[in-house]
Amino acid sequence: RGMVKKGVCLLLVLINSKLLILSGTRNALLALIFGAIIILTHLHKKCKYSKLLLFVIAVFPIVFFAVYLAFFPIISQNNLLLQFMSESKEIDSRYSMWISTLYNLKGHFLTGSYFSLAGNTHNSHLVILASYGIFVLILTIIFLYKIMCVANSQCKTTFQMVCLATFFITIFMGIGEGALFSGAVGLYIPACIYLLLCRYNPEYGNRE
């Protein structure tokens, strides 16, 4: 029975991976890669995630945004990341949008400008910054960090750790999409389910 369950799970992973590649969704692919790295580097240790890692994950979308803008000239000049380009998806599509958002943020950095800048800026944390300002962004990061710390404290099994890592992936989705903070209703429900499953210990059949 256990082998059958593992076989079905492996088949579903392969099918979903193939569909993801065919979709050409760069953001989802990157988020999955980041999440897989965390899972693979922690499962063999059988220990909880460090608070430093949780903080890095909480701020990752806005840090990625800043690093990408800083290094984009080098990326562009040296034709790096060409494998992520397609006929309808230029490598500078996010760069142009993010530069424009930053320019329009002048004078609104503290409070944001919901009426003129609200919308999907294709970065979850930038959505918050543009709409509500730096203070709300900081509070949002603290909120994400606290949620992950609470969930992490309840992880006692591999199953729970994988569920929390899957929640990490929903945050990583924010590097190139509005994700959790810009109308991604299809992401809200799975994200909540992942957090709830962090409290479920299948070895005992109940919540911790």
Please explain how this structure is put together.
The chain is an all-alpha fold and 208 residues long. Helices cover 67% and strands 2% of the residues. The chain contains nine helices and two strands; from the N terminus they run H-H-H-H-H-H-H-H-H-E-E. The protein has helices spanning 2-23, 26-42, 51-77, 93-104, 114-117, 124-132, 134-153, 158-172, 185-197, and strands at residues 200-201, 206-207. Strands 1-2 form a two-stranded antiparallel ribbon. Strand 1 and strand 2 form a beta hairpin. The longest helix is centred in the N-terminal third of the chain and has 27 residues, at 51-77. The radius of gyration is 19 Å and the shape is globular.
State the order of secondary-structure elements, H for helix, E for strand.
HHHHHHHHHEE
Largest sheet: 2 strands, antiparallel
Class of secondary structure makeup: mainly alpha
Give the end-to-end Cα distance, rounded to a whole number of Å.
26 Å
- For the biggest β-sheet, the strand order reads 1-2
Residue windows where pLDDT falls under 50 for at least 5 positions: none
Rg over CA atoms: 19 Å
Instruction: Provide a count of the helices.
Output: 9
- E-strand count: 2
